[in-house]
Amino acid sequence: MQPLYTAEATAWGGREGRAASSDGNVDMQLVVPKELGGPGGAGTNPEQLFATGYAGCFHSALKLVARSQKVDVADSAVTVRVGIGANDSGGFELMVGIEAELPGVDPEVARGLVAKAHQVCPYSNATRGNIDVSLDIVED
Q1: Can you tell me the distance from the alpha carbon of 40 to that of 30, in angstroms, rounded to the nearest whole number?
Q2: Counting beta carbons within 10 angstroms of the beta carbon of residue 78, is it exposed (0 to 12), middle (13 to 18) or buried (19 or more)?
Q3: What is the pTM of this model?
């Protein structure tokens, strides 16, 4: 693969530090959530950042697929939930839930668009076979 674009970011201090992109557009404090034994509060965490990136990327894939099938998804939205938990090997793993809202689109058509977007989205292609990813739609 020849990259069309490469993002670069650096983290200092792990989950209790800071992360920034090389171009300065992202610069944020990282905080361990209370649910993982941290203080919570102001800041973000890797799971929120992953969920945000995945949601944006998946929504773009959904719009691309819909446009190719001439389906209007102008009012659509995608929500991604990223869960983290212990695995059986003493480490941790992620799970992802993707929920698409496509107002005015027939539910069967919406399911087909979401399934096709899951084949197109780079995040879906990167995670396929590595973590559990569920797909759902919000029905009117």
Answers
A1: 10
A2: buried
A3: 0.95
